[in-house]
Structure formats: structure tokens, C-alpha cells
Design brief:
Helix content is 72%, strand content 1%. It has 13 helices and two strands.
Length: 321
């Protein structure tokens, strides 16, 4: 089967199958099939179409069972501490990106790219609202506004996390705000956000959290909503890979820029999603039955596949072949 895609080209059955996975609500399928989405390299118009077909409301999830569970003794103190910290890192990140992506959308060279990035900004805002509701209704944050909720959870973030979002990502966005024609800054920003933060860190962290929640049958309302969040993030990563592949094909100079950006960002990024209270930030156990080495290995293998899809050597920036 083949139909015309957004560029007037024929979309193959493999591409359609891969993209259809992004409509699935099962996190295992979303995560395991992301590689096929990457390999399909869907057009910007096809990604925009997926966005239109994947609409959801942050208010549609029932948190009643979640709130009852959180109020019970089901969760240990250690589990609560770790879950609160890692979900806060997502919550704060969603707000930061909602703001920082604005210059990206203005700077994008084509209409299709700008339209997709505008849709992504809307996604990130919706994710932020989803987390705000979960924190108020389930975790009993005691806050009245999103701003108050964010300010409270921001206190849990350590230096490396703040450096990644308020330093590295913000600097790329600020450079674009001052000069939207700076293509190097746009390539650097897309690499930092779509490839490192979303594609390597966030999707990995979400995969392990959601896998645990599914196996333990906990927080059903949040689990459903967070799966929708990560379905969106998978689409964003698909855009980043397509954009960077196009950039490399336009000018080989961008291959070196992407590798330099990965090399300079990953050391901070790894620590950004590592809890600050553990003795060894690279080697620690989680209260959910998996070790840090499992997350790091999964993240780097995922990064290597994305690099290959972009037309780069998988070993760039230390990613395994």
C-alpha cells in the first residue's frame, strides 16, 4: 500500500506502519517501535498530520484511584522520594521547553518546520498542565497555580539539571532569539533538545518508570496520561532526526557541529537525570528494581540508532555501534 505523503511523494507501507504506531496507547509498543519511526524518516507534513490525529486532553484522565493509592501505605518513603524527584524533573522540563522553543519556531527555515514546532510548543504546554493537575490532585502539592507548583518542585532540582535547561538549552534559544537566521544555533538547539533531552534522556526515563508502573499495576490514571505524553515526545524526536538529517545533507559542516554539541552536552545531561542524593551518580540502584547501568545502556543504544538515522557514525560522542 502507498499513498502520497506531505511532499507529494509516495509513502510506503513501512512508513505508514511505523507512523501508525504513534497512535497506539501502549507504551511498550510506542517505545519498541520508535526505531521504525526513525528509520521511516517521515516528512514534516506527515508529522503534522500525526499531531492532528493524536489530540488529547489533560483533563480526560481519572486520577481517583491514583489519589487513593498515594494516600495509602502502598508506596514506601524511598519510592515516594524517587518518584517525586524524577516526575518533577519532567514537570519542570515541560515548562522550560514551552518557553525556550519559541525562538526555534521563529528561526525554522521552512513553513512546514515552523508549523510543526508550533504544534510541539502546544504539546509541551499541555504536558505541563497534565503534570500540574497530577501534583495537585494526587500528590497533594497544596498549590493553587501552575507557577506556584513549578516553584515548589524546582527546589528539588540539582545543579546539573539547572545547567542543562537554564544554561545549555537556554543559551541556544537566546542566541536564536537575537538572530533567527543563525542556522548553527538552530542545529545546536535541536540536537540539545530533541536528541539529547527528549530522545536520549526523557524517553529512557519514561520507559523505565512506565514499565515499573505497568508491571506493579500502580497509578493507572497517571500511567495512561504519561503514555500519551511520551507518544508526543516520540513524534518530536522524529522531527529532530529528520531536521538534522536534512541539515547534514545540505552542508556536511553540520555533522561536526552535531558531534561537538553531543560531546559537550552529554556529560551534564547524564547527571541531570541522576538523583543528587546517591553516593555515586553513575552507579546506583533505584527503588523500582532496576539499576542505573540499565538506563544508561538503553539510552546510549537509543542514541546510536538516532545518530545512524541522521547519517552519522553511531560511535559519535561515545554512543555504541
Amino acid at each position: 500500500m502507498a499513498i502520497a505523503n506531505g511532499n507529494g511523494e509516495l509513502a510506503t507501507g513501512d512508513e505508514l506502519s511505523a507512523l501508525d504506531v504513534l497512535l497506539d496507547g501502549d507504551i511498550d509498543k510506542v517505545m519498541s517501535q520508535l526505531d521504525k519511526v526513525v528509520a521511516a524518516a517521515p516528512s514534516y507534513r506527515k508529522l503534522i498530520s500525526r499531531w492532528e490525529n493524536q489530540g488529547w486532553s489533560s483533563e480526560s484522565f481519572d486520577f481517583t484511584a491514583d489519589a487513593e493509592e498515594w494516600a495509602s501505605d502502598t508506596w514506601t518513603a524511598e519510592e515516594r522520594k524517587y518518584l517525586n524527584w524524577i516526575l518533577s524533573s519532567f514537570f519542570i522540563g515541560e515548562e522550560r521547553v514551552t518557553t525556550e522553543l519559541l525562538p526555534f519556531a521563529i528561526a525554522a527555515p521552512t513553513d512546514d518546520q515552523r508549523i510543526f514546532l508550533a504544534s510541539q510548543i502546544a504539546d509541551e504546554a499541555r504536558h505541563c498542565v497534565f503534570f500540574d493537575r497530577f501534583y495537585r490532585e494526587v500528590l497533594n502539592s497544596g498549590t493553587a497555580t501552575i507557577a506556584e507548583n513549578l516553584a515548589t518542585e524546582r527546589k528539588l532540582m540539582h545543579n546539573e539539571y539547572l545547567e542543562l535547561f537554564d544554561g545549555i538549552l537556554h543559551d541556544a534559544a537566546e542566541t536564536l532569539r537575537k538572530d533567527p537566521s543563525d542556522m548553527d544555533a538552530l542545529v545546536r538547539g535541536v540536537t540539545i533538545y530533541m536528541i539529547v533531552i527528549e530522545g536520549t534522556l526523557a524517553l529512557t526515563g519514561a520507559r523505565f518508570i512506565l514499565r515499573y508502573l505497568k508491571e506493579a499495576d500502580r497509578l493507572p490514571g497517571f500511567r495512561d496520561g504519561f503514555t500519551h505524553v511520551n507518544r508526543d515526545e516520540s513524534r518530536h524526536v522524529g522531527f529532530g532526526i529528520r531536521f538534522l538529517n536534512d541539515a547534514i545533507n545540505t552542508d556536511v559542516h553540520y555533522r561536526d557541529l552535531i558531534q561537538e554539541t553531543l560531546s559537550s552536552t552529554l556529560p551534564t545531561a547524564v547527571l541531570a537525570f541522576s538523583p543528587g542524593w546517591v553516593e555515586n551518580r553513575y552507579d546506583f540502584d533505584t527503588p523500582f528494581g532496576y539499576h542505573s547501568s540499565e538506563m544508561f545502556e538503553y539510552a546510549m543504544k537509543s542514541l546510536s540508532k538516532k545518530l545512524a538515522a541522521m547519517g552519522m557514525e553511531p560511535a559519535a560522542a561515545g554512543a555504541p555501534a
